[in-house]
Fold this sequence. Notes:
This protein is mainly alpha-helical.
Amino acid sequence: MSLWGCLQLLLALLCLGSVMAQPADGIQDDTHALSDSSRRLLADEMAVLKKDLGCDVWLSAGTILGAGQTLRNQAREIRLA
């Protein structure tokens, strides 16, 4: 697996969803970092991962952490929500 693929997997596992409703492709990109083609490619890779793992996979890319909040804590809160 490429470095980009590993990073995508890590981000998907850390950010298991969002409190807000998820788009149909499972990608919430509040940063607007993904181009349309990158988003489609990532969504396709996430669909394969979802099938292989047998569970839902989401990616939530945001720009702000609350005061005193770590990425790990935020991912846990999102997962529990």
